[in-house]
């Protein structure tokens, strides 16, 4: 019957070949001890049907089952043929995806977490797609958090997202224009009353104003710690040499509250908040608080690992950090249903190498720095991507 099966493939009678294969595969002996020739022709039939991924796996299985010279040569040739067909299909799809003039807009591609058990399975085919070896692909696939993978023309990135989805690798891409069009309001003061909060804030053009928000309008909480660098003198080993370096001396904490119905972000930062304007629902500011000028609060030093829970009591704490902690406590009491997005630092480490792309994203943060820092741009990118993926994931 194997000869009949081969003859059916020679004359391209695939209907007869499928019937013969079905008869052979139903044989109990074939199920107990698969015949490599039957598997080979199953792969040929899958190749003809356009099931290239299944066909390649079937041919690879044949190579593991037999050392027959003719059969192994045919299987290797079939694998090469299948890979060539896949490569040509990708080239045609990529050319079609980039044909539209609008597809040349810059954008970014982000990899989403992959099941660790699937990494080894998808690495070979994903490596051919990305022109990388499987080992490098396994190292680059994230398992817990987002990974900022690459930048480029949005048409090309959409092609890669679709190709990765077919392989079982979740990813998404966003054009730069969508990232830069989401409005951000920088909060300088906050006053709460019942189920609403009134934010005194500034727009991206530094225009002052007020924004009254219902707590039920806040649908997403994104926070991050931005390192603050200072130039310090390093004595080196044994104090024999002195070198001036930029080192992290403190952190600024930023909290973004997303309002999807209004299509905007309300941004609070412990370094730019003006505390005299904050009023707690059950504890107005005490008369013992020293007066402060109407300007951003100075950096008074705060460990990034300091606890975020305020001490019990209704009096407004006196230190910079204690007041900020009390603000966060009040916000969390009003928004207990929101799970904060806290994976910014892991994301930023994968995005900081793409400085040219980050420079095109305004940070919407006014921190006291000696020079521009890509960490600020990376946080706005992370927060905006979280907004888009949560409320409007269409690329």
TrEMBL record:
It comes from the Bacteria. Residues 284-296 have a biased composition (Pro residues). Residues 284-315 are annotated as: Disordered. This is Cyclic nucleotide-binding protein.
């Amino acid at each position: 019957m194997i000869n009949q099966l081969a003859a059916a493939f020679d004359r391209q009678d695939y209907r007869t070949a499928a019937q013969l294969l079905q008869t052979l595969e139903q044989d109990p002996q074939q199920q107990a001890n698969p015949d490599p020739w039957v598997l080979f022709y199953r792969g040929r039939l899958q190749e003809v049907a356009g099931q290239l991924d299944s066909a390649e796996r079937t041919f690879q299985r044949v190579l593991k089952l037999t050392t027959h010279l003719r059969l192994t040569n045919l299987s290797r040739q079939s694998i090469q043929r299948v890979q060539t067909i896949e490569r040509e299909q990708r080239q045609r799809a990529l050319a079609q995806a980039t044909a539209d003039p609008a597809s040349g807009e810059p954008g970014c591609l982000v990899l989403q977490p992959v099941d660790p058990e699937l990494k080894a399975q998808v690495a070979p085919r994903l490596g051919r797609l990305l022109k990388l070896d499987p080992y490098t692909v396994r190292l680059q696939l994230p398992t817990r958090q987002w990974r900022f993978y690459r930048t480029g023309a949005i048409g090309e990135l959409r092609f890669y997202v679709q190709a990765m989805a077919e392989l079982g690798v979740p990813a998404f891409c966003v054009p730069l224009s969508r990232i830069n069009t989401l409005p951000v309001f920088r909060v300088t003061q906050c006053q709460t009353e019942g189920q609403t909060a009134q934010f005194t804030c500034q727009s991206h053009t530094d225009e002052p104003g007020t924004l009254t928000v219902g707590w039920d309008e806040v649908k997403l909480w994104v926070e991050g710690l931005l390192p603050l660098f200072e130039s310090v003198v390093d004595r080196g080993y044994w104090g024999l040499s002195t070198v001036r370096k930029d080192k992290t001396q403190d952190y600024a904490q930023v909290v973004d509250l997303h309002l999807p119905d209004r299509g905007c972000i309300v941004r609070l930062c412990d370094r730019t908040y003006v505390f005299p304007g904050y009023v707690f629902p059950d504890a107005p500011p005490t008369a013992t608080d020293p007066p402060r000028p109407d300007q951003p609060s100075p950096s008074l030093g705060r460990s990034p690992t300091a606890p975020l829970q305020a001490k019990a009591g209704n009096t407004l704490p006196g230190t910079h950090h204690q007041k900020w902690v009390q603000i966060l406590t009040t916000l969390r009491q009003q928004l207990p249903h929101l799970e904060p997005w806290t994976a910014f630092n892991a994301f930023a480490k994968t995005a900081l190498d793409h400085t040219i792309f980050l420079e095109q994203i305004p940070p919407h943060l006014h921190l006291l720095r000696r020079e521009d820092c890509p960490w600020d741009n990376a946080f706005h990118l992370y927060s905006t991507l979280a907004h888009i993926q949560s409320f409007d994931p269409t690329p």
